[in-house]
Write a structure and sequence with these properties.
single chain; 259 residues; alpha+beta; BirA Bifunctional Protein, domain 2; SH3 type barrels; 2 domains; seven-stranded mixed β-sheet; five-stranded antiparallel β-sheet; 6 helices
Length: 259
């Protein structure tokens, strides 16, 4: 089992910090540790052997990249938990801006990716533990290509090109130091949502959204819709204006129109 590591800098109060040399998946490890943890905790691994993304896809982690999970005890239902992906995206955006500097072009791709100079640099995966509508634990998993990005041939056909912080900026940061930036940023945005609701999170997210006002294609397992990315609603669903009218899309894979 991992051992708590002493916090540094402006680490948020009441949040534990665990650093593992190796694990299969930080999300899986967080949910395994959940019964023995008294409160929220960040679990980071220096090596992750079986990372995963949305819809069961693999997430390749090369040495020096970042993989960590915030284990939380959610108080609301699944819809409230889903909004935390937007908190995570804003925190990631802040932490990456701190690392890469103001010249880097950062944006957030709905529903769970952060882009650097137009390529995917980070992803978010939420997984829960519990039964039925009750959430006993929520794992907010985050992966960031700090040092290296997957090769093009390792990506799915049609996937957005992957980039790394080092490759795009020439700057390097250790996973531990990145966690020290990410955890306070997440705490700041979470406190804002707790105090004021989802509205300011939605506004801040839209201000950083990739291709807002542009043409997107949303693909689910059963359907494909193409339209103008208008906004997100109060539940975080994507709102597309299509030839069939205004459509709310709660979950999908998103593809940008080729320019």
């Amino acid at each position: 089992m991992s051992q708590p590591v002493a916090p540094r800098n402006d680490w948020p109060d009441g949040i534990a910090r665990h650093i593992l040399p190796r694990c299969d998946s930080t999300n899986a490890e967080a949910l395994r540790l959940a019964p023995g943890l008294s409160g929220a905790a960040w679990i980071m691994a220096r090596e992750q052997t079986s990372g995963r993304g949305r819809r069961g896809r693999g997430w390749s982690m090369q040495a020096g990249n970042f993989a960590a999970t915030l284990l939380m005890r959610p108080t609301g239902g699944p819809a409230d938990a889903a909004r935390l992906s937007f908190v995570a995206a804003l925190a990631l955006h802040d932490a990456l801006r701190d690392v890469a500097g103001p010249a880097a072009r950062l944006s957030i791709k709905w529903p769970n990716d952060v882009l650097l100079n137009g390529g995917k640099v980070a992803g978010i995966l939420l997984e829960s533990g519990g039964s039925g509508a009750r959430l006993d634990a929520l794992a907010v998993g985050i992966g960031v290509n700090l040092i290296a990005a997957p090769l093009p041939e390792a990506l799915e056909p049609g996937a957005m090109p992957a980039v790394s912080v080092a490759g795009e900026t020439g700057l390097t940061v250790t996973p531990e130091d990145f966690l020290d930036l990410l955890a306070p940023a997440f705490d700041r945005w979470l406190r804002q949502m707790t105090a004021y609701g989802f509205a300011p999170i939605r506004t801040a997210w839209l201000a950083r959204a990739a291709h807002l006002g542009g043409t997107l294609t949303a693909r689910t397992g059963k359907a494909e819709l193409t339209g103008t990315f208008e906004t997100i609603d109060d539940n975080g669903a994507l709102i597309l204006t299509t030839t069939q009218g205004r459509q709310a899309i709660p979950a999908a894979d998103i593809y940008f129109a080729e320019s």
